[in-house]
Design brief:
14 helices; single chain; alpha+beta; Macrolide_Exporter_MacB; 2 domains; ABC transporter permease; transmembrane transporter activity; membrane; ABC3_permease_C
Length: 424
């Protein structure tokens, strides 16, 4: 018999037992759905992380008073930071970066780079404009004239901070898009030179930022940015720790810039030669790498779930095929009496097993892709089609079907036609 004839016979047998085949297909589909769904969601998270941290620029780094910890903190930089932290004296650890230290670094760093000093004044403020107000989740940031460039913000209207703003610390502010929409409506008219209130402090709006988008990990548009000198005056800057951002003009000089920044800041913080740094330098791309390394655990867990489910599905499929052989003993005897060889019987049952398994895999891949892309919608990232895992999932199911169908197929092919025809 031709391959087409055997395959058609196998497909007809599967169609004749729809309930049994459907239950088996569903078991396999849910296992593949879990695998592909989690992996698709992970790819969406990676795209979101990449877009978030790529906007900071691969040629920038930050100086902070303590190590950055994300999730479990298993990135390579986190391990290095932990090792450094153990060598720092307890009385010398996590000392805030003062305004004087940040200002001195900005003035003395002679490397061809742009230096920005910033501080987080409030992580949950309410902003008012007349009768309109925002939720109490607006981040109030203090920055200098280089902060917008370092953070990759672009002005839609208005102007950046000037020298007079920085020197006097007067109450001027630049609004993020989400804040402006909440206070002025979607049209965002007459924003510039209007007055708002952040908590109990009034500010004059001098600029409106272009939208950066919400990645799901950070909301870059729910911000009010004022000058770092204003935050010192209004929010009491002596107790704050300041962040120093450095954007190198040539990415090839990144390591040299980090080395010079480390040496200069050691001098500014009066560290001895035999003392470890009590500050931490983190590159913008290394933050994404820390997140990626933690997402690898999710991928491993998804693979384990898929393998366990497929293993259970293989056992179930083998059992169903054995039951099918027992139920169709007389049919097998008729086929042999009509001239079907052992090879044809074996192929028929193997094809049936593969058809059921592949149909389950295809359904699971489709459902997993749809479920996983719900994360894409929530994070406002592009639709993800995990081609590798689609082919891998279907191929894996075909292999499971082949292995599950071999033993029942051999058993069916060895049946004696005379005994099989007498079977009731």
């Amino acid at each position: 018999m031709q391959f087409r004839d055997i395959f058609s016979l196998a497909y007809s047998s599967v169609s004749a037992n729809r309930l049994r085949a459907g239950l088996t297909i569903s078991i396999i589909a849910f296992g593949i759905m879990a695998l592909v769904g989690i992996l698709t969601a992970t790819e969406s998270m990676k795209n979101s992380i990449y877009s978030s941290f790529a906007s900071m620029g691969a040629n920038s780094f930050s100086i902070q008073n303590r190590a950055l910890r994300i999730f479990m903190g298993d990135g390579p930089d986190a391990k290095k930071s932990d090792k450094q932290k153990k060598k720092v004296k307890t009385s010398n650890a996590n000392i805030p970066i003062t305004w004087v230290e940040a200002r001195d670094f900005s003035r003395r760093f002679s490397f061809p780079a742009t230096v920005s000093v910033s501080v987080t004044a409030s992580g949950g403020a309410t902003v008012y404009k007349g009768d309109n107000k925002t939720n109490p989740n607006i981040q109030v940031l203090g920055g200098d004239e280089n902060y917008l460039e370092f953070s990759n913000y672009k002005l839609k209207e208005g102007r950046n901070f000037n020298q007079l703003d920085m020197e006097t610390g007067r109450n001027v502010a630049i609004l993020g898009t989400d804040v402006a929409k909440k206070l002025y409506g979607d049209a965002m008219k007459n924003v510039i030179n209007s007055n708002i209130r952040v908590g109990n402090v009034r500010y004059r709006v001098i600029g409106l930022l272009e939208a950066k988008g919400n990645s799901g990990f950070m909301s870059a548009d729910k911000v009010v940015i004022t000058t770092v000198t204003n935050t010192r005056r209004v929010y009491g800057g002596n107790s704050m720790t300041y962040n120093i951002g450095v954007s190198v003009k040539d990415i090839n000089h990144m390591d040299a810039a980090v080395g010079e920044a480390t040496g200069l800041f050691r001098i500014i913080r009066h560290l001895h030669v035999n003392e470890e740094e009590n500050f931490y330098i983190s590159k913008s791309d290394s933050i994404g790498e820390m997140l990626f390394s933690n997402l690898s655990y999710v991928v491993a867990a998804a693979a384990l779930i898929g393998i366990i489910t497929l293993f259970g599905s293989a056992i179930g499929l083998t059992n169903i095929m054995l039951v099918s052989v027992a139920e169709r003993t007389r049919e097998i005897g008729v086929n042999k009496a009509l001239g079907a060889t052992r090879t044809v019987i074996r192929r028929q049952f193997v094809y049936e097993s593969i058809i059921i398994s592949v149909l389950g895999g295809a359904l699971g891949v489709l459902l997993g892709m749809l479920v996983g892309n719900v994360v894409s919608l929530l994070m406002h990232t592009s639709f993800v089609i995990p081609w590798f895992w689609i082919f891998a999932g279907i191929s894996l199911c075909a292999g499971v079907g082949l292995m599950a169908g071999i033993f029942p197929a051999i058993k069916a092919s060895k049946l004696d036609p005379i005994i099989a025809l007498r079977y009731e």
